[in-house]
Amino acid sequence: MRFHRRALLAVMAAVLSVSPASAQSRDVVILAAASLKNALDEASAAWAKETGKATKIAYAASSALAKQIEAGIPADLFISADVPWMDYVAERKLIKPASRSDFLGNDIVLIAGKDSKVDLKIDKGFALGAALGGGRLAMANIDAVPAGKYGKASLEALGVWPSVADRVAQAENVRMAMTLVSRGEAPLGIVYRTDATADPNVRVVGAFPASSHSPIVYPMALLASSTNPDAEAFVVFLKSAAARPFFEKQGFSVLK
């Protein structure tokens, strides 16, 4: 499977600047799916204000993060945008199994620029190819990144994938896919509902039926190498009533 060098370097730049010693003794180091950025930044800031403890978060595609965990990146907590990439690190005994939980749920939506006049009802055989005109459909990597995989699965289930398969602009993560639409470089894109909420330059055209793809679940787990006691406390906070509004405001459903 191919992984993008730039995404991997971004993770390394964000996290490898923290030595293993400091990661274990001070900062809670979190590897999180890119779609979590707004909500997790707010939750982390609230926890820091409440406790005086520090966090350091690297955001990227779950695929890139899982590969970096496998490579031994020093970190405490992994929050993936899908179950398979958490399974990937679990099978390699890189998480603490008892700490794993299904944390959040999400939806995928079709977006357009805020001033776009595109009007589509997402259903079997809908005219996505025609709506693109001469443009391309922005998606996260369809082979590795959860949002891209969910999007492709939905388009296949709805019978429209053949009409757009050769017109997809693939990005390294879902936020980069949204940026293509936000900047007007692609007329339409497929992202999480929570991403669309975070960018005022895009609007939701419609949501993909939940039945057209597997459930979108964000699992989280402490990494097996972590000995930082603050990491477990941070997980407890993320599951608390105090943190819940940060995620619900962005459109996530809190599962536990």
CATH level 4 superfamily of the largest domain: Periplasmic binding protein-like II
Q: Overall mean pLDDT score?
A: 91
Described by the principal axes of the CA atoms, the overall outline is globular
Helix/strand order, N-terminal first:
HHEHEHEHEEHEHHEHEHEEHHE
- Class from secondary-structure proportions: alpha/beta
- Measured as a percent range, the helix fraction is 25-40%
- Work out the radius of gyration: 18 Å
Cα-to-Cα separation, first versus last residue: 32 Å
Provide the β-strand percentage band.
Answer: 15-25%
CATH architecture of the largest domain: 3-Layer(aba) Sandwich
Which regions contain 5 or more consecutive residues with pLDDT less than 50? 1-5, 18-25
Number of separate helices: 12
Largest β-sheet summary: 6 strands, mixed
- Structurally, the number of domains stands at 2
CATH topology of the largest domain: D-Maltodextrin-Binding Protein, domain 2
Total strands: the figure is: 11
> CATH class of the largest domain, please?
Alpha Beta
The neighbouring-strand order within the major sheet is 2-1-3-10-4-11
Describe this structure in words.
With 256 residues, the protein is α/β, with parallel strands linked by helices. It has 2 domains: 5-105 and 216-254, Periplasmic binding protein-like II (D-Maltodextrin-Binding Protein, domain 2, 3-Layer(aba) Sandwich), CATH 3.40.190; 108-212, D-Maltodextrin-Binding Protein, domain 2 (3-Layer(aba) Sandwich). It has 12 helices and 11 strands. The chain has a 6-stranded mixed beta sheet, with helices on both faces. Strands 7-6-8-5-9 form a 5-stranded mixed beta sheet, with helices on both faces. Strand 1 (28-33), helix 3 and strand 2 form a beta-alpha-beta unit. Helix 1 crosses helix 4 (62-70). It starts with a helix and ends with a strand.
